[in-house]
Amino acid sequence: MISKNTICLWYDSDALGAAKFYAETFPDSAVGAILHAPGDYPDGKQGNILTVEFTVAGIPCVGLNGGPQFKHSEAFSFQISTEDQAETDRLWNAIVNNGGQESACGWCKDKWGLNWQITPRALIEAITDPDRAASKRAFDAMMTMGKIDIATIEKARRG
After folding, report:
1. What is the pTM assigned to this prediction?
2. How far apart are CA 134 and CA 41, in angstroms?
């Protein structure tokens, strides 16, 4: 069944490489149909890969090889919930160590410029704690981090 709503992500020319990386890295992800351009287009030739359908953590996407005119920004990101530090580390390191960049508060950017939030469930629980003092301590700890360290968040939450 074709999804009624699909996220379209613009890539310079490597939508297939990105889709393969996401499928190898994130659970419930896969590469789908690949469309080769039926004719020349502004940044490509007939027969080039124009679009790639893929799924990232269950979310249907299409990658468009549109050329360098438009770039990804932090205004859009995938937020991936993790269960523990091992999963947080694995996903963060996969993105950063594959040509990506670290950012702040659990954010990182992949080598194609797409932004990711690698967010442990423990972080969300801590910053939504009904105890406002505990929530603030956890939030303040998060604000000093790149990759989220769950033990540090939980220690801050406890005070």
Report:
1. 0.94
2. 55
